[in-house]
Amino acid sequence: MLSIFNISSTGINFYKNSLDAIAHNVANVNTVRTMDEGAVRRQSVVGTADTSPVPSMIGTGGTVGGGVSFKVVQSSSAVGLVTYDPENVLANADGYVRRPDIDLTTEMADMIIAQRGYQANLAVVQRATEAYQAALQLGR
Amino acid sequence: MDFGLVNPAVRIALDGLMMRQEAIANNVANLSTPNYTATNIEFEGALSAALDMPGSGSATTQSFVSVIASEAPRTQDGNNVSLEEQTLLGTETNLRLELALRAAEGRFTAMKNVLGGS
């Protein structure tokens, strides 16, 4: 019972972790590393539909899926953007450093998507609460 | 002992509508999942067909509910969940649930009156 809450919580968790990954990317947008170290890599959260049966309210063994599961992947290479910056203390003998291959515009767009997705899942929880509350009034 | 407090059709409608809410929750949770196909729950057609036939009182919910895969166009990442559609469907489903709950309520009120409650 109350499986809508379980399903929606996986969605909320997914978007929360997306926001965490975006925060990591934005925080490191200017992180310079040496050529040997390798650039900071962009993180993204990739979801997969969870098809494991959820104990449904009426015991049909979960005909709908159980929400979303996800994994965090490194979505840019450690090569990064090799930049000529001889003034930098981290530059190698030839004057090169590695900057992360992170685009702030993409991060901002992803952030808006994650924010709206989070809100959409919360709206589902809100609606389910109303429905359950109405059901609890039965026979009063 | 079954007092028949809830009409079988109302019971099936309540179960089906609740499952539809679960399907919507699952679709919204998978809003950004690559290659995800939206699903919906269909039961009204089978239910109204069964009501036209006599002797449908003992039917179970399982025989009425079917999961339909959406054929909506997909975005670049292969996902076809439409948030607008899911929100509208969710609101509509909640109103239908309320309606079905009111239909169920009537029998309870009648039974309470019979039992001497004021």
Describe this structure in words.
- The complex is a heterodimer of chains A (140) and B (118).
- Chain A is 41% helix and 16% strand.
- Chain A is built from two helices and four strands; from the N terminus they run H-E-E-E-E-H.
- Chain A has helices spanning 3-27, 104-136, and strands at 43-49, 68-74, 81-84, 96-99.
- A two-stranded antiparallel sheet of chain A has the order 1-2. Chain A has a two-stranded antiparallel ribbon with strand order 3-4.
- Residues 57-62 of chain A have low confidence and may be disordered.
- With 118 residues, chain B is mainly alpha-helical.
- Chain B has one domain.
- Chain B is 53% helix and 7% strand.
- Chain B has helices at residues 8-29, 44-52, 83-114, and strands at residues 39-42, 66-69.
- In chain B, strands 1-2 form a two-stranded antiparallel ribbon.
Q: Termini separation of chain B (Å)?
A: 24 Å
Give the % helix of chain B: 40-55%
Strand coverage percent of chain B = 5-15%
Uncertain regions spanning at least 5 consecutive residues of chain B: none
Listing every helix as H and every strand as E from the N terminus to the C terminus, the arrangement of chain B reads HEHEH
- Residue stretches of chain A low in confidence (pLDDT < 50, at least 5 long) are 57-62
Report the portion of residues of chain A in β strands.
15-25%
* Number of E strands of chain B: 2
Counting structural domains of chain B, the number is 1
* Most strands sheet of chain B: 2 strands, antiparallel
Strand order, sheet with most strands of chain A: 1-2
Please, how many helices of chain A? 2
**Gyration radius over CA of chain B:** 18 Å
The residue fraction in helices of chain A comes out at 40-55%
Oligomeric state of this protein: heterodimer
Considering residues with a beta carbon less than 8 A from a beta carbon on another chain, report the largest interface and each chain's count.
A-B, 40 and 37 residues
Total number of β-strand segments of chain A? 4
* Helical segment count of chain B: 3
From the spread of the alpha carbons, the general shape of chain B counts as: elongated
End-to-end C-alpha gap of chain A: 21 Å
